Amino acid sequence: MAVKQACKPCCALIYLTATPTVKLRHAINTGDLTGSELPIRFHGHLLPEPHCYPLFTWRRSVKRHQLPSVMRNLLRKCLQEQRLLLFVPQVRDLEAVQQSVVRALPHITVNTVHAGDPNQLDKIAAFRAGCGDVLITTTVLERGVTFKNIAVFVLGAEHVVFTESVLVQIAGRAGRQQEHAANPVYFFYADYTVAIQRACQQIKRQNRKGRRLQSTV
Question: What is the CA radius of gyration of the chain?
Answer without folding.
Answer: 19
